[in-house]
């Protein structure tokens, strides 16, 4: 295993302090479950890392009107064990409780998960399906965008090097929301979120694609489902070929969507 490079450590206590420091050479982190592998592989090479764990405004889970507000440094374990999340977004809580392993769940954060845009992410797939948004702070002020727009591709987001993801807003789950995954190793091979939208179902496929891909289907849309799965750019890897994953996905969706009212 490669040795981590020697890095300066910066520990801001406010979002403004963090924004005054972070750039291409000063990498923000909280759990570092994604950053450490990137440093070991040499795909990230900052001169300093910026510890966000002391910034109180980046933590916390609250319910606001019809949505949850999740601080960016909320860990997967906190998400899974939160009574508020279990009540308002039980599928999200359950998915967070099955992310990675115990170490990842205890230290990895929802903000870090989204910012690294790892394709094989459980939470990104479900958050896109739920219509979640991210709050971003930067030198020019604050902005909000959907998670779907935020994730551009594999390991690529719209976050600038001098910007900080500060929170995630998740609409309360409608009844009937599900998240299913096929998993052979530590990360999912395929992830599928299904969310009711009136008498239709919003389907988002992740893990086997470079970014979560969405479709919407109603009763009897078998041909549309077939076309959707055929167009997906699925990956070949050690977990299986693209055609194997396509066949599994077709079978799952045929069964899951067969009962759309």
Tell me what you see in this structure:
The chain has helices spanning 15-19, 35-41, 76-81, 83-88, 90-96, 102-107, 110-116, 122-130, 147-150, 222-231, 242-257; strands spanning 8-10, 26-29, 48-51, 61-64, 67-71, 133-138, 141-146, 151-153, 156-157, 164-171, 178-182, 190-197, 200-206, 213-217. The protein has a 5-stranded antiparallel beta sheet. A 4-stranded antiparallel beta sheet has the order 11-12-13-14, sandwiched between helices. Strands 1-3-2 form a 3-stranded parallel beta sheet, with no helix packed on it. The model has no long low-confidence stretch (mean pLDDT 90). Helix 10 runs antiparallel to helix 11 (242-257). The chain has 11 helices and 14 strands. The protein has 261 residues and is of the alpha+beta class. It starts with 7 loop residues before the first strand and ends with a helix. It folds into 3 domains: 8-51, Uridine Diphospho-n-acetylenolpyruvylglucosamine Reductase, domain 2 (2-Layer Sandwich); 56-171, Uridine Diphospho-n-acetylenolpyruvylglucosamine Reductase, domain 3 (2-Layer Sandwich), CATH 3.30.465.10; 178-257, Enolase-like, domain 1. Strand 11 and strand 12 form a beta hairpin.
Helices and strands in order:
Elements: E1 8-10, H1 15-19, E2 26-29, H2 35-41, E3 48-51, E4 61-64, E5 67-71, H3 76-81, H4 83-88, H5 90-96, H6 102-107, H7 110-116, H8 122-130, E6 133-138, E7 141-146, H9 147-150, E8 151-153, E9 156-157, E10 164-171, E11 178-182, E12 190-197, E13 200-206, E14 213-217, H10 222-231, H11 242-257
Parallel strand pairs: 1-3, 2-3
Antiparallel strand pairs: 4-5, 5-10, 6-7, 6-10, 8-9, 11-12, 12-13, 13-14
Helix pairs in contact: 10-11
